[in-house]
Amino acid sequence: MNDHKAEFKSPLLEVQGLRKTFGGRGGKPGPIVAVDDISFSLNPGECLAVVGESGSGKSTLARTLLRLLDADSGSVLYEGRDLLSLPRAEMQRQRRYLQMVFQDPYASLHPRRTVAQLISEPWEIHPGVVEKSGRPARIDALLAEVNLPKHFSSYYPNQMSGGQRQRVAIARALALEPKILILDEPVSALDVSVQAQVIKVLMTLQERRDLAYIFISHDLPLVRLVAHKVAVMNRGRFVEAGPTDTVFDNPSDEYTRTLLASSPAIAEDA
Ligand SMILES: Nc1ncnc2c1ncn2[C@@H]1O[C@H](COP(=O)(O)OP(=O)(O)OP(=O)(O)O)[C@@H](O)[C@H]1O
């Protein structure tokens, strides 16, 4: 993912002054500030990693971007339009372009649905994206994109390994032809031996489809491998953000230095 930095076009996503608190009453801000004045931009084909300790606000940021949680203030411009101020029906239409892949594919895939049903579900919610007659062929093509054979379409989640399930979750996220994938710890629930397969699929897809990723991860060596830019989150704020190599080689913030020092593989490399 690191090798096409020069090709970036105009920003796909521009986030400005995003803020989300919890514990407020009657629509007022609450005392728990989970996302505090976050701003960043994301280009097509770019991978932004968001790193930080548990509780720093990474998942809340992801959910607020997608309007799964209501922001207190700020804006999220997708191709220049503020998602936070769109009417609900229009937001629903735009959602197809911003999809999320969760940490645990077992929890995110309904156990009683076949792979074909799981991949087709988004087309029921967004009719017109893929005609009914074209769906079987599109399912095969999506499975091929995540390196799974066609016959997996009749499998149920419990007939697959964790890595295969996560690849199905990725195929499903791609069904609506999104421009941005928010990947919330996409491989941390998987055995180390299969993590690399899933990462390879994600890197190939990014290149082929010019996808933008927001990659939430605790795994700093992996972040260094896949991300163009890194944002370091602490107590709801981006305390440091910049090109991956700059942040890793010359961290300017004390919190970033502590985080890097606690990652053994990176400390040894340094
Ligand atoms: N629904 C909620 N109600 C109240 N507080 C919440 C809620 N969701 C999150 N928080 C708080 O917001 C802060 C950020 O939490 P969040 O889950 O976004 O962090 P995170 O960085 O994603 O953590 P992790 O890596 O463990 O997933 C924490 O202090 C958390 O307790």
TrEMBL record:
Which branch of life, at top level? Bacteria
Q: Main site of residence?
A: membrane
The UniProt entry lists membrane topology as: Peripheral membrane protein
Name the Pfam families on file.
ABC_tran (PF00005)
Entry-linked InterPro entries: AAA+_ATPase, ABC_transp_ATP-bind, ABC_transporter-like_ATP-bd, ABC_transporter-like_CS, P-loop_NTPase
Q: Which UniProt keywords apply?
A: ATP-binding, Nucleotide-binding, Plasmid, Transport
Q: Localized where?
A: Cell inner membrane
Q: Does the keyword Nucleotide-binding apply?
A: yes
Q: Which GO terms describe its biological process?
A: transmembrane transport
Give all residue intervals belonging to the ABC transporter domain: 13-260
For molecular function, the Gene Ontology terms on record are:
ATP binding; ATP hydrolysis activity
Xref: CDD domains: ABC_NikE_OppD_transporters
The UniProt entry's GO CC annotations, sorted and at most eight, read: plasma membrane
Q: Which Gene3D superfamilies does the entry mention? A: P-loop containing nucleotide triphosphate hydrolases (3.40.50.300)
Q: Is Glycoprotein included in the keywords of this UniProt record?
A: no
PANTHER family from the xrefs?
A: D,D-DIPEPTIDE TRANSPORT ATP-BINDING PROTEIN DDPF-RELATED, TRANSPORT ATP-BINDING PROTEIN
Protein family membership: Belongs to the ABC transporter superfamily.
* Name of the molecule in the record: ABC transporter ATP-binding protein
